[in-house]
Amino acid sequence: MTPILGAYFADAFLGRFWTFLIASAIYLLGMSLLTLAVSIHGLKPPPCANPNAADCKKASTLQLAVFFGALYTLAVGTGGTKPNVSTIGADQFDEFHPKEKSKKISFFNWWMFSIFLGTLFANTVLVYIQDNVGWSLGYGLPTLGLAISIMIFLAGSSFYRHKKPRGSPFTRMARVIIAALRKWKVQVPSDPKELYELDLGEYTKNGKIRIDSTPSLRFLNKACVKVDTTDPWMLCSVTQVEETKQMLRMIPILIATFLPSTMIAQINTLFVKQGTTLKRNIGNFSIPPASLGAFVTISLLVSVVLYDRFFMKAAKRLTKNPRGINILQRMGIGMAFHVVIMLVASFVERHRLSVARDHGLVENGKQVPLSILILLPQFILMGTADAFLEVAKIEFFYDQAPEGMKSLGTSYSMTSLGVGNFFSSFLLSTVSHITKKHGNHRGWILNNLNASHLDYYYAFFAILNLLNFIFFLFVSKFYVYKAEVSDSLAVLRQELEIGSRHRVTNSQEASTNTQVNGST
Q1: For the segment 333-348, what is each residue's pLDDT rounded down to a tens digit?
Q2: Per-residue pLDDT tens for 86-134?
Q3: Do the bridges between strand 281-282 and strand 368-371 make them parallel or antiparallel, or are there none, so unpaired?
Q4: Nearest alpha-carbon partner for 452 in 363, 373, 389, 382
Q5: DSSP labels, 476-506
Q6: How many CB atoms are closer than 10 A to CB 354?
Q7: Element (H or E) spanning 281, and its range?
Q8: Least confident segment among 66-80, 96-110, 446-460, 479-493
Q9: Membrane-spanning regions, if any (predicted)?
């Protein structure tokens, strides 16, 4: 949830570069603290071989404080890095340069590809090190990697295009909403040119883009109806109103992404727990259940390459859209995948439970004689869904946010994942409680998965995803894309040229009149 705060400081005060740099230092501090918490004897509980955790010596208050302090420090660092580093990357492409603009369309594909290369390393090499070597090295390696990555980032500082902060986005939006409410009885003129707007020169001087008035969310147009005061809480420019509209228009789409983010949370929770009940040996090698997430990563990496190199080019020839399909269509395909994923997961779990019953393993909860590889379809499909939905999500919220609120827009996609995790916990506890209280058995979700009914739970998720997909189709049907920034600039330049020509013409006419009057 912290990326909203990180985005706020970047857009309002520090700028994206400095916010990212300061947050990276906090992130490195958190990783260093976490590494110390599992390495120094006094900061970790003594080893315990007893299978019953209740009989082991508990961590002291100091040990818990250091460990959780490190985790919350990481959360703060994440808040400043996540919404800003991808935004800095996208800012390097010039919207007004045709070649750079076309390259930017592929940027988020390769951005996610790079991120998931790191995830693949984490889910394979790091998980193996943590399980077989120790936590000190398992946390020490990513800490060292983070320090090196910060140095690489700093090495390129002089080459970056830096965007200046433009003041608090929340204040700008609040002024529009309050001004519209205070003037709720005012009639909005039918001609948008009668609304209050700054001179063209004000925008060009500050490197900003003017946005023309749109009919959507018409109530907010009351904020720019001219009155006898210039109080910013009573009168806002058309551009300021349109920026607020752009951020508000994205909220229904944001809400539609919460449930898919909840599905992503299952990868490292219930999907992994299923893996612990299955045979994990392939020859002499035992697959750690946490490494199953690597199949999601591999699937996403392959899917992103296929999408960027083949699907996008083929679709472009059919649709004439530079992206192949628009961003919301790409998100919709990812959401449709989530319905299929949960249906597949439900059928696989039903088969697993049937084998557990056949072998009398329901009550004792012992390992089911099935290979862990039967879970591969749901992991692979999840990676394919991410290649559509997660890449499109971060691109959509960046692309559709106003120029001065890009970090805040990008934070929407991070917030979606945070809300998804909270929602996952809420659904898990609520469904578990309701099915225990009102069901004819002990509940759908128990510690003993062989006695649970995860197949019902996954089927429930499939229904929720279907309803969410219908909701997404509804809100996306009415969504109005913002005008391309480069198009807005072209219009602005035309108006400035026309205005300049008018001034030249008027000046020449005045000069001619003066000469005629002088001759007379």
Answers
A1: 999 999 999 999 999 9
A2: 888 888 888 778 788 778 878 888 888 888 888 888 878 888 888 889 8
A3: unpaired
A4: 363
A5: HHT--PPPPHHHHHHHHHHHHHHHHHHHHHH
A6: 12
A7: strand 281-282
A8: 479-493
A9: 17-38, 107-129, 141-160, 247-267, 287-307, 327-348, 368-389, 410-434, 456-475
Instruction: Indicate the pairing of strand 281-282 with strand 278-279.
Output: unpaired
DSSP-H helix ranges across 122-233: 127-132, 135-155, 169-182, 200-205
Residues pairing with 286 in the sheet: 281
Query: Which residue type, as a one-letter code, is found at position 443?
Result: G
Which phi and psi (to 5°) does residue 20 adopt? -65, -45
**What tokens does 73 get?**
């420090």
Contact indicator for 301, 116 with CB cutoff of 8 Å: yes
Distance CA 508, CA 514 (A): 10
CA 150 to chain centre: 22
- Whole-model pTM: value is 0.80
3 state SS for 220-275: HHHHHCCCCCCCCCCCCCHHHHHHHHHHHHCHHHHHHCHHHHHHHHCCCCHHHHHH
DSSP 39-58: TSGGGSPPP---S-GGGSPP
Q: Tokens for 69?
A: 């302090």
- β pairing state of 281-282 and 285-286: antiparallel
Q: 114 vs 119, 300, 307, CA distance in Å?
A: 9, 11, 15
Q: What share of the chain is helix, strand, coil (3-state, %, to 5)?
A: 75, 0, 25
pLDDT of residue 221: 92
Q: Could you identify the residue written with the tokens 């006094």?
A: 42
Q: E strands within 361-483?
A: 368-371
CA angle 34, 38, 41 (to 5 degrees): 130
CB 381 within 8 A of CB 340: yes
Q: Supply φ then ψ for residue 281, to 5 degrees.
A: -85, 135
Listing DSSP states for 79-120 in one string gives: HHHHHHHHHHHHHTS-TTSHHHHHHHHHHHHHHHHHHHHHHH
Beta carbons within 8 Å of 108's beta carbon, 6+ residues apart: 86, 90, 391, 394, 395, 398
pLDDT tens-digit series, residues 404-435: 888 888 888 888 988 999 999 999 999 988 88
Q: Read out DSSP for 426-441?
A: HHHHHHHHHHHHHSSS
CA 115/CA 123 separation, integer angstroms: 13
Contact 27, 104 (CB under 8 A): no
CB 241 within 8 A of CB 436: no
Residues, the chain, total?
Answer: 520
Helices (H) and strands (E) in the chain, counts: 19, 4
